[in-house]
Specification:
The complex is a heterodimer of chains A (372) and B (197). Chain A has 372 residues and is α+β, with helices and mostly antiparallel strands. Chain A folds into three domains: 49 residues, no CATH class; 52 residues, no CATH class; 248 residues, no CATH class. Chain A is built from 13 helices and 13 strands. In chain A, strand 10 and strand 11 form a beta hairpin. About 40% of the residues of chain A have low confidence. Chain B has eight helices and no strands. About 10% of the residues of chain B have low confidence. At the A-B interface, helix 4, helix 5 and helix 6 of A face helix 2, helix 3, helix 5, helix 6 and helix 8 of B.
Chain lengths: 372, 197
């Protein structure tokens, strides 16, 4: 047996962990090998030091008492973190986290179904708290210009409304509509206020850059739905007092009147965000065209809205811009009703011309929405 | 005598006397582990106290299907290591602290040539210092193995690793200790003649 081979047994040899036969071989080797003998002695010394407990000090006599004092203080100051409560607290935390995740998932499923501006929101990619203002090169400007002609061939932005043509129920008022001012509501990026008639708006070239308000679809709260547009009949508010207050609040928002009769109100959505209370009226017709009229209370929004036009119960639409989003057109304008500024949004799978006609025809008053 | 696990159950139901019983059962073993790890009396006592407060706070995490002893020892080891790392402390031991007394149980140590006795004491000092220079993981297994007289299986249970891993680790720790010791001697230009010891 050489020293290298012996080396790996040295610790076991010193701890007497070897078989008698192997131990005997090593004993014999140690009688002849000075180096290995030294290694064994050194290992014994190491073992002696490693295993020595003679110097271990003792804890102070009052150690247990001091620990128990800490424990009593610990229980008194942190009752929720005491051992018996820890599990409950943890379980409660897990339950809350699970509920939160479930709620988020539920919202992810429901929101696209109940909010009409989902596509707008996706395009706008706006943050969740407030609507954002974007300056976009708006292709719908051209669309509006092109669609000033009533011929179906020019209504080319959507197959849907191309086939439908102009709205027969509306009296065309291009020729008689009074001039209205473009509301300067888009803060610093908005061009100066200018006079523009509906006719000129449609027929004359307009700036290709519009300040367009793209709407956020992810309102933080959506309180309720009403079938048949009855604002006084909440279906989901229950008895919650805060919800009831909101209901009263929404009820104060004027409702659209004079909506063309072939549009049927199918749904009303109330929502609230720091931007202000909003009521949406969802319409459809027999051709499955959709129209969404949204009123947002701008006073809550504390914006300095320069609303022009004749104030009054019905209000006069002020054209602010429009934007083609997917197959739908969106028009935003501002009205003042009973001294309160509102933002009106018309969104629908209708032509730009029809949208303009709708903006002119629809009025707003407190109460339930009506058609003619 | 009630088992540790039953005491733990009682503590979870608010029985502080049961906790006091556990403190009395484990305070010495925990203190010894910690003391050997950190090498300072006062610090070791503070850490031991910290260990028991932690045990009380985390007792709800204790798996009652397992043994309590390895669990509390693991907390002790982890707390000691955590404190060492926090302070990034290189523990310098004095003679009167940790691994620092004479070895009456080694028969030849205190007998014979005074020069040999002195040399032996010097070697043991070097060994003690070398132990404290070892990485924490090596020091831990050596303390549990040689100071706490734990079998490899129990060390494995305490540290949550396999028994084979512990065997390897102890072997490596011993090798590392030897290397550190020889390096110390080499740096000092010391040639040890152990034949007279």
């Amino acid at each position: 047996m050489n020293c290298q081979r012996y080396d790996k047994y040295i610790f076991d040899y010193c701890e007497d962990n070897l078989s008698p036969a192997l131990k005997e071989q090593i004993d014999k080797h140690l009688q002849e090998c000075y180096y290995c003998k030294n290694q064994v002695k050194l290992t014994h010394l190491e073992n002696a030091v490693l295993g020595d407990k003679s110097d271990l000090p003792s804890l102070a006599d009052d150690f247990t008492d001091r620990v128990m004092q800490h424990i009593v203080g610990f229980r008194a100051t942190q009752p929720l973190h005491s051992a018996e409560n820890k599990k409950k607290t943890r379980a409660r935390g897990i339950a809350l986290a699970t509920a939160a995740v479930g709620l988020v998932m539920l919202m992810a499923i429901l929101v696209p179904q109940i909010l009409p501006f989902q596509k707008s929101a996706q395009i706008a990619d706006s943050p969740p708290v407030s609507s954002e203002r974007h300056t976009v090169n708006d292709s719908s400007t051209d669309a509006i210009q092109n669609e000033s002609l009533p011929t179906p061939s020019h209504q080319s932005t959507s197959d849907d409304y191309t086939s439908t043509g102009a709205l027969p129920e509306l009296d065309r008022q291009e020729d008689v509509a009074p001039p209205i001012k473009v509301a300067d509501v888009m803060e610093s990026t908005t061009p100066a206020v200018e006079e523009m008639s509906i006719e000129s708006r449609v027929s004359e070239p307009m700036s290709t850059t519009f300040d367009v308000e793209l709407f956020r679809a992810d309102y933080p709260e959506t309180d309720s739905y009403w079938k048949s547009g009855d604002l006084q009949t909440p279906s989901r508010l229950g008895s919650n007092e805060a919800a009831a207050n909101k209901l009263r609040h929404y009820a104060q928002i004027p409702a659209p009147q004079q909506v063309p009769g072939h549009f049927t109100l199918i749904n009303t959505v109330n929502s609230y965000s720091p931007e202000g209370s909003t009521v949406e009226y969802h319409y459809t017709d027999k051709s499955s065209r959709t129209l969404i009229i949204t009123l947002q209370n701008l006073k809550e929004r504390e914006r300095n809205v320069n609303v022009t036009g004749a104030p009054g119960a019905s209000g006069v639409p002020n054209f602010a811009g429009s934007n083609s989003i997917d197959e739908k057109l969106v028009m935003t304008y501002y009205v003042e009703i009973d001294g309160q500024p509102y933002q009106v949004t018309l969104e629908g799978s209708v032509s730009a011309e029809d949208l303009v006609d709708l903006a002119e025809a629809i009025t707003f008053t407190a109460g339930n929405p009506t058609s003619h | 005598m009630l088992s540790d696990e039953i005491l733990a159950e009682r503590i979870l139901h608010g029985d502080t006397a049961a906790f006091e019983e556990l403190v009395n059962r484990y305070k010495n073993s925990i203190f010894h582990i910690v003391y050997r790890m950190v090498g300072q009396y006062q610090e070791a006592e503070d850490i031991t106290q910290e260990v028991f407060i932690l045990v009380y706070d985390k007792l709800y995490q204790f798996d009652r299907t397992k043994r309590f002893r390895p669990w509390i020892h693991r907390i002790a080891v982890n707390t000691a290591i955590s404190n060492l790392r926090k302070k990034k402390k290189v523990v310098q031991l004095s003679f009167d602290e940790s691994f620092g007394q004479t070895y009456q149980d080694y028969p030849s140590v205190m007998e014979g040539d005074p020069e040999a006795i002195f040399e032996r004491k010097e070697i043991m000092e070097d060994i003690r210092a070398s132990i404290m220079e070892l990485p924490e993981s090596y020091r831990t297994v050596l303390v549990l193995r040689y100071q706490m007289d734990m079998k490899n299986a129990e060390i494995a249970e305490t540290l949550g690793v396999s028994k084979e891993n512990i065997e390897v680790r102890i072997h490596r720790a011993r090798k590392a200790l030897r290397r550190v010791l020889l390096k110390r001697w080499e740096e000092r230009g010391v040639q040890r003649e152990l034949s007279t010891l």
